[in-house]
Structures are given as C-alpha cells and as structure tokens.
Amino acid sequence: MIDDLKKLITPKIMAIALLVIVVGVSVDLALVTPKSKRLVSLENKRMELLGQVAQVQSSERDNRRLLGYLEHYGLRTSSLIKEDPTAFLGKLIEETNLVRLELRAVDAIESTNLVQTKFFLRVHGPFDPTLQFIRTLESGTRLVTVDEIKINTGLDNRNLETRMTLSIYDPLEKL
C-alpha cells in the first residue's frame, strides 16, 4: 500500500511542482522581470544624472574661480570699456590727484576690429602720483600704448610736468 501511495503521490507532487514552477516563471516573466528591468533602467538614469550634476557643480566651481581671477585683474566683461577714451583718461588723472594741464585727442584710426585713439596729454604733480598714473595705464583694463613721454621738473622745482602721446585701443563694437 505504501508503494501504491508513493506511486499516486509522486505524479501528483510532480504535477503540482511543475505547476508551481510554470506559475512562478510566468509571474516572473510577467511582473518581476519588467519591473527589474525598469529598476535597472532607472538606476542607470540616476547614475547618469548624478554624473551630470557633478559636471555642473565642477563647471560652476571653475566659473567662480575664473570670475574671481577676472575680477582680481579687473577684466570682468561687465566692467570693460563703458566710457569713451577721453573720459577714461580724465577720470584716471583725477584719481591719481594730478593736475591736468592739457588733454586732447589727436587722431582716431578705425581698423576692422579696433579703434585707435591717439592723445596728447600734459599733467603736473608729484613723483608718486605720476608714477601711479603711468602704472595704472600699463596695467589697466584697456589696451594703452605710450608712444612718447617727456618728464621735466615743473616751474616750482618740486613737482613734475609730464608730457606724453599715447594711444588707446578699443574694440570697434563697444564704442
């Protein structure tokens, strides 16, 4: 009887086991696998987005460093060339506390991308402000070339009288 029972139970158990396997595989294929693929897809998209965020943050850090560098040297585009060259020179003379004796535009030459404005300038003042004026011209935000410079002692023998011809170059579209 045990043998008959084993023979009867074994095919039923096999059929039930087979049915469980088929249902499990069907459920896996129908429900679990698509969700797993979607989960893997979402995880890949998440990693891609995290990479993009890291690039943006790195770019922002680089931009902040670049803006700091440009600000340090007075090269920010927002602060570049907003006034005409005569006003620029007049303001620079006032900032260095020199006395302007003469300032006149001699010529303006327009090329493809630049306007070269030539000036004759005569100022009077102590040595240190005169030196500061020349240094500011050299290291300023505008391209300035000093074509000729003559420095003599003034009539009072304490101050200097400086005569110079210089050129200021500005981008054509900014003027």
Q: Biggest sheet, strands in spatial order?
A: 1-2-4-3
Tally of alpha and pi helices: 3
Q: Overall mean pLDDT score?
A: 83
Quickly give the structural class: alpha+beta
Q: Termini distance?
A: 111 Å
Helix-strand string: HHEEHEE
- How large is the radius of gyration? 41 Å
Beta strand %: 25-35%
Question: Which outline best applies?
Answer: rod-shaped
Q: What is the number of E strands? A: 4
Q: What share of residues is helical? A: 40-55%
Largest sheet: 4 strands, antiparallel
* Contiguous runs where pLDDT drops below 50 for at least 5 residues: none
Describe this protein's structure.
By secondary structure, the protein is α+β, with helices and mostly antiparallel strands. The protein is 54% helix and 27% strand. It has helices spanning 2-72, 85-95, 127-139, and strands at 99-110, 114-125, 143-153, 160-171. The chain has a four-stranded antiparallel sheet. It is rod-shaped, with a radius of gyration of 41 Å. The model has no long low-confidence stretch (mean pLDDT 83).
Task: Briefly say what this structure is.
It is built from three helices and four strands; from the N terminus they run ααββαββ. The protein is an alpha+beta fold.
What would the keywords be for this entry?
alpha+beta
Topology overview:
Elements lengths: L1 H71 L12 H11 L3 E12 L3 E12 L1 H13 L3 E11 L6 E12 L4
